[in-house]
Specification:
Layout: H1 6-11, E1 19-22, E2 26-30, E3 38-44, H2 59-75, E4 83-86, H3 90-93, E5 102-106
Antiparallel strand pairs: 1-2, 2-3, 3-5, 4-5
The structure holds guanosine-5'-monophosphate and zinc ion.
Length: about 120
């Protein structure tokens, strides 16, 4: 665990969050500043900085994040209406927390392309 990493601290229950789902390797919790009626972040419990630093050995973990996001989309009731999963990577995409995370956004029509 990276002690100075906000999402590691959430994963270790050192920082409170509204957790909606978890499994052995991943945790899903509500975004503190929601941009859609459903806005959940899905993170690995182990620290991986970004998609840019992920390696072949992280392939299964990255897939597991997407699959937990799909599970949460179903439990949040947006699977049929539709949703988007987003992984912001590095500065131009606005990645503000350097612990890889999948945004699950749904509950309203989502514009394309994103800003
Ligand atoms: P990024 O901008 O890195 O793609 O996404 C980081 C997300 O983390 C943002 O949507 C932001 O609102 C959310 N966030 C930042 N700090 C906290 C926090 O302390 N708790 C929760 N639940 N979300 C946070
Ligand atoms: Zn971390």
């Amino acid at each position: 665990m990276a002690h100075d990493c906000l999402f590691c601290r959430i994963a270790h229950r050192e920082v409170p969050a509204t957790i909606v789902a978890e499994n052995e390797r991943c945790l899903a919790f509500r975004d503190i500043d929601p941009r859609a009626p459903v806005h959940v972040l899905v993170i690995p419990k182990d620290h991986v900085e970004s998609l840019d630093t992920a390696r072949a050995q992280d392939a299964e973990l990255l897939g597991a994040l997407q699959l937990l996001a799909a599970e949460v989309a179903r439990s949040e009731g947006v699977a049929r209406s539709g949703y988007r999963t987003v992984v912001n990577t590095n500065a131009d995409a606005g990645q503000s927390v350097p612990h890889v995370h999948v945004h699950l956004l749904g509950g309203r029509p989502l514009a394309w392309p994103p800003g």
